[in-house]
Amino acid sequence: MRALKFKLSGATAFFKKPDVNSFAYFTYGHIHKIAVLGILGSVLGLGGYAAQAERKKGKRAAGKKAAGKNTENTDEYPEFYQVLKGGKISILPQKGYFTKKLQVFNNSVGYASREKGGNLITREQWLENPCWHIYVLEDGLPEEVFSRLGEYMTASRCVYMPYLGKNDHSAVIEECGVVELKKAGGSRIDSIFIKGAAVLGENTLDEDELEFWYSEVMPVGLNGCYNFYEFEQLMMTNRSVSNVAQMPDVYECGGRVLAFF
What's the structural domain count of the chain? Predict the structure, then answer.
C-alpha cells in the first residue's frame, strides 16, 4: 500500500466552526479532512464552493428553457470533493495542541455593518504555528488523480494558492513524497483517529509518561443536499489501543502508526 506524504504548516490557521457566530468565530484545534481535501483540490486546480454556486446559477437559468427534461445533477458537491471524496487521509500533528489566540479586526468599509458609524468588529480565533504531517492513501482515489497529485506536489507545483482555512493564512507544503505502508499491529496510534473505532486501554504505553488526551467533534464529510458537514468524534492520545490490528485502514510508516479515515 502506498500513500502521498507531505508536511503542512503555516504561521497561523483558521478552520471555522459553524456552530457559533454571535461574539466571535472559533476554530477547530486541528485541520480537518474537508480542509485537507480542499488543499489537494487547489493543487490540482479543482473548483470549490464558489465555482459550484456559479454552475448552479447557470443551470437554473438554462433549466427554465429546458423545463421538463430529465437532467443529471452533477453539482451535488464542489468539484474538489466530488473528485477526492473517496480518498482516505491520516493527520499526524507535530504536537497535540496548538496555541489559540483571539484576533480582533475593524471593518469600516460602510456596507459591512449597519451599526452606528458603519464599523463592524470581527473576532476570530487563530491557531499559531500549526504543523501536521498529512498522508493521503492511494486506495480510494482514481489512479490518474493520485499520480498527478504526487507529480505536482513533489515538483512544488499548484494551480491555486493553498491556504489554511482562509486566504489570510498561507500554507507551506514541503517534504513531499510517496511512501510505502504496511499493516499496523501493536497497541498504539500516533495520528488522529475516529474515537468510536478504537478500544482504549486504561494506561499509557510508558508508565512514566503523563497521559495525553485530545478529542473533538470534527468534519469528515459533506452531505449531498446542502453540503453541510458530516461529523465524527476524533481523538489523539498516548493511551494504549487494544484493537489496532482489527481496525480498518491503520498502517505503519517510518515507525509511526497512522489511522486513515
Answer: 1
Quickly count: other Cβ atoms within 10 Å of residue 168's Cβ.
14
What does each of the 261 residues of the chain score in pLDDT, given as a tens digit?
999 999 999 999 999 999 887 789 999 999 999 999 999 999 999 988 888 878 877 776 666 556 555 444 557 899 999 999 999 999 999 999 999 999 998 877 766 666 666 778 889 999 999 999 999 999 999 999 999 999 999 999 999 999 999 999 999 999 999 999 999 999 999 999 999 999 999 888 888 889 999 999 999 999 988 899 999 999 999 999 999 999 999 999 999 999 999
CATH of the domain at 221: 3.30.70.2660
